[in-house]
Design brief:
433 residues; alpha/beta; Urease, subunit C, domain 1; 13 helices; globular; binds zinc ion
Length: 433
């Protein structure tokens, strides 16, 4: 299965669309460009006008009768629709405009090897350049699907991809990466501190920590309180956030006591632990659907590698209702910040929205709350709330348009009409899929 277009095509498409910020003027009046956007006047260079039916601002507000004005990569106004005197108009009739989605937990580099079709493992002959290209393909798949920022937890191949995207060489979401995780094998508290120092020096944007076993192995704690104190304490010394893989109450409780930033998965968490996370101000990033369903759908591509055993799959099947119950409990805990992340692995990139949809349709989350969790709340969780995550003056123009209204039907997130990141349009399909 190869959903990703070849990279050279990707780059051409992105480059061509990026050029639409300078409309092909026809001496004034309306002139359609190659992309279907329309210039209002000939002196509109640099101004883009997005005209949807409604705007969801990412902070809980809905606007109608407004257009978003973008200049130099940033949102400069939410103006009355039709009031902006000059600019290149993107007609988004029938759509809802919202901030690009922010996924706080992906695995950017995970992929199925081309030769075998199976999950990449140590036996592959792929070199580092192949790894980076697979990650670049995943990045493009996610950007096309409306995810404009990802936090990858994380492999060394993330780094060149992050930097190439940031430098404008290849298209993709903004990438933050932990590069490598801290695990039970990382050693004593002192050795863990040294590894955190190394990761900080290597340009890690955050530190990822495994404090419990995989759900396929029961999810029991794997790091002591002292080890977690060392990891999260040393990360804080560098101003780095800490994301902790923790399935059960004990590992999550230790993470909270250690002052870590965010707890991942949490399939087995009880109310008391969820309340502790809220009290200590940790973000909770549950994964209730996409990662499980993707494993089940791609079972043959995973089984036989590492802990992807028959027993491992059985444990995952058992975890589905447990994780859903923990999520439903979490929704009722006051002041708990439930942030959006998917744990997207090989096969799941570009389907990130399905996790959000499932939280609404099966988890019972309010759709607006779900959208906020994937936009302004997610931006706050990664320390970028002054740059992205909302449709507001001054923020970077990371915007998507979907046909329909995702508050009325969260499944509308699949039906993308426009993807813009930093003012550059990477996808514009006003007419439908
Ligand atoms: Zn993960």
């Amino acid at each position: 299965m190869n959903r990703h277009p070849p990279i050279h095509l990707v780059s051409l498409v992105a480059f061509g669309l990026a050029a639409c910020g300078t409309p092909a003027g026809d001496g004034g009046g309306a002139g359609a460009t190659a992309t279907g956007a329309t210039a209002v006047t000939s002196d509109s260079a640099g101004t883009l006008i997005l005209r949807p039916d409604r705007i969801i601002d990412g902070r809980g507000e809905v606007w109608t009768g407004r257009e978003v004005v973008v200049r130099d990569g940033r949102i400069v106004a939410l103006a009355e629709s039709g009031s902006t005197p000059a600019g290149l108009v993107y007609d988004l009739a029938g759509t809802t405009l919202l901030p690009g989605l922010i996924d706080t937990h992906v695995h950017l580099g995970w992929h199925f090897d081309r030769e075998t079709g199976r999950i990449h493992s140590g036996e592959s002959t792929d070199g580092p350049q192949d790894q980076a290209l697979y990650a670049a393909g995943n990045a493009w798949a996610m950007l096309r699907s409306g995810v404009t920022t990802v936090q990858s937890v994380g492999g060394p191949e993330d780094v060149p991809v992050r930097d190439a995207i940031a430098g404008g060489t290849i298209p993709g979401p903004r990438v933050l990466t932990s590069i490598r995780p801290i695990t039970a094998g990382s050693g004593t508290p002192e050795e863990i501190r040294a590894q955190v120092d190394e990761l900080a020096a290597a340009g890690a944007d955050l530190i990822k920590i495994f404090a419990s076993a995989s759900i396929r192995d029961g999810g029991a704690p794997t790091l002591s309180q002292e080890q977690l104190d060392a990891a999260c304490g040393q990360a804080a010394e560098h101003g780095l956030r800490t994301l902790v893989h923790a399935h059960g109450p004990e590992s999550a409780r230790r993470s909270a006591l250690a002052g870590c930033s965010q707890v991942e998965h949490g399939a087995l968490l009880d109310r008391e632990t969820l309340e502790l996370l809220a009290e200590r101000g940790l973000y909770f990033d549950p994964h209730i659907h996409l990662v499980f369903q993707n494993y089940f759908d791609n079972r043959e591509r995973y089984i036989g590698v590492g802990n992807y055993t028959e027993e491992g799959f059985r444990q995952m099947e058992e975890a589905v209702p447990t994780a859903l119950a923990a999520f439903r409990e979490a929704l009722t805990v006051p002041d708990l910040h439930i942030v959006f992340g998917t744990d997207a692995v090989a096969g799941a990139h570009g389907h990130n929205w399905r996790e959000l949809a499932h939280r609404v349709t099966d988890g019972g989350q309010d759709p607006m709350e779900a959208l906020v969790s994937a936009t302004s709340l997610a931006a706050r969780s990664i320390g970028l709330e002054d740059e992205i995550g909302a449709v507001a003056d001054g923020l970077q123009a990371d915007l998507i348009a979907v046909r329909g209204d995702p508050v009325a039907d969260i499944g509308a997130l699949e039906d993308i009409a426009l993807v813009m990141k930093g003012g550059t349009v990477y996808r514009y399909e006003p007419g439908g899929r």
